[in-house]
Automatic annotation (TrEMBL):
Pfam families documented for this protein: MupG_C, MupG_N
Organism, scientific name: Spiroplasma culicicola AES-1
Location of the 6-phospho-N-acetylmuramidase N-terminal domain: 6-242
PANTHER family linked to this entry: DUF871 DOMAIN-CONTAINING PROTEIN, PTHR38435
The 6-phospho-N-acetylmuramidase C-terminal domain, residue ranges: 251-366
The protein's name: Outer surface protein
InterPro entries membership: Aldolase_TIM, Cyclophilin-like_dom_sf, GH, MupG, MupG_C, MupG_N
Length: 368
């Protein structure tokens, strides 16, 4: 895996120049350092004024320190009068990486990774075909070869989670950096003329909070860069998204009961929660709280029926396991009786993240 990175997408023709500049600056100030742009949707003979606007934004983003990704096809190369074997003009424009939406022949892609301008070459992951292995056959310069998923504006058209894992793993197993898209609920602009939100790579994350979408992609340990596909994010989304640069473990948003004790709160906020390696199927067990805390957990907030995502702490009615934190994995669960205190529940939008947790994985909670 590569170091975690975050990115945005911009579509300058849909906004004033000032709005795009302000958005780039705001995101850069929050540690977001990748920007995705595309010329494909502009067609074979685009308005020269729009092209010049894009070129201005390429250079401005580069000046701010962005890694600038440009999505192109052969048609794009034709109207820019650039050959794939001479990418110096793209370097002059401020481009860091070319994403080949409709790739060339495998040998041409491999050869392009040796370009004198040192521009990275990115190809599509989502097709889940043997194109990448064919490129590898021609010995590309792998540090200049990247993979990136598509985004899918049409509801129910994005990849299934299973297909996403399979196709991404092809690239990761070859040591290639990977990227994928999440969607802002606030932003309504993409490459299309009409309004669109949730430009995502994976269908199951569509409609979830932006932070949760990104957490799910990063939790696969297969994606290194997460890009927001639509423009713009809200200020709150920028804040929530940028904080993921520093998140080192699974994070679950939780609605906490009002009347939990100080000891229960301390256990909930413990900084070394992890699921025991001998993981069961009924609940997640974080057991080191039994060792690190010297306190009594009096019975409190007893619930006869627990459901998936409920967070509990074993109380003094089961003295041996007292202080152990558990997360329920089944609905209508009644096996624990009066031995656990209900602390709160993981928010519904984060339950799919709970499905990805495995033994030895570290996790934390974030009160909402």
């Amino acid at each position: 895996m590569f170091k975690r990175q975050l990115g945005i997408s911009i579509y300058p023709e849909h906004f004033s120049k000032e709005e795009t500049i302000e958005y780039l600056e705001k995101c850069s100030n929050n540690g977001i350092n990748n920007v995705f742009m595309s010329l494909i949707h502009l067609g074979s003979s685009p308005d020269i004024n729009i092209i010049n606007l894009y070129k201005e934004m390429f250079l401005f983003a580069k000046k701010l320190g962005y890694y600038v990704i440009l999505d192109i096809t052969q048609e794009t190369l034709n109207f820019l009068n650039i050959k794939i074997n001479n990418l110096e003009k793209f370097k002059e424009m401020g481009i860091s990486c070319l994403r080949l939406d409709a790739p060339l022949l495998p040998k041409e892609v491999a050869d392009a990774t040796y370009n004198e301008a040192d521009i990275d070459i990115q190809i599509n992951i989502s097709n889940n075909d043997n194109f990448i292995t064919n490129v590898i056959d021609y010995k590309p310069r792998k540090q200049n070869l990247f993979g990136c998923h598509n985004f899918y504006p049409l509801k129910n058209s994005a990849l299934s989670f299973e297909r996403f894992i399979i196709s991404t793993k092809r690239f990761v197993d070859l040591g290639i950096h990977t990227s994928a898209f999440v969607g802002s609920k606030f932003g309504k602009k993409g490459p299309q003329k009409y309004e669109v939100s949730d430009l995502v790579s994976v269908e199951s994350i569509r409609g979830l909070p932006l932070r949760t979408q990104a957490k799910i992609l990063f939790s696969t340990n297969l994606i290194s860069t997460v890009l927001v596909g639509n423009q713009p994010m809200s200020n709150e989304e920028i804040k929530q998204f940028s904080e993921l640069l520093h998140l080192k473990k699974y994070e679950f948003d939780i609605k906490i009961e009002d009347n939990i004790s100080i000891n229960e709160k301390s256990i909930l906020e413990y900084n070394n929660h992890f699921w025991r390696g001998d993981a069961g199927s009924d609940f997640v067990r974080s057991t080191w709280t039994r060792v690190d805390f010297n306190c009594e957990i009096e019975p409190n907030n007893i619930k006869k029926i627990l459901n998936k995502g409920d967070v509990c702490i074993i109380n003094s009615n089961n003295a041996h396991y007292q202080k152990e934190l558990i997360v329920i994995l089944k609905d209508n669960y009644t096996e624990l009786g009066n031995s656990v205190n209900y602390i709160g529940n993981i928010m519904e939008y984060d339950l799919s993240l709970l499905d990805l947790l495995e033994g030895w994985d570290k996790f934390k909670f974030r009160g909402v």
